[in-house]
What does this fold into?
Amino acid sequence: MESYNTTLADFGQRNKGDAKRLTAGDEGYRAMIVQSSDTNPQAERVQIGLIREASVARRISTVRSLSQTAIYLSRRAIRRAKPLLTEREADLAFVANHYGEDLAERLALYLERKQL
It folds into this structure.
């Protein structure tokens, strides 16, 4: 399995004096293990480098965008699989799929009581 060298800066310690390159055997050294079996290791190195270079705001924005896309695609799949569900039923199906049947049932009861 391939791995990459990391620096202290890679772990959020952004003081310029702390950004020395660590190598195997150094205290605090951690090798990064290849994450994607279907991605060329060189391409993954470039991707990881781009992520490391990005500002915190940019990384948060990217994560938010990926989360929104995943939620959208999940809701769309529910709608396609069961087009006759009401909006509330589709919402509860989403909760059941991602957070469990128990929470979906408790949410349904809460929404029923709140509506009364």
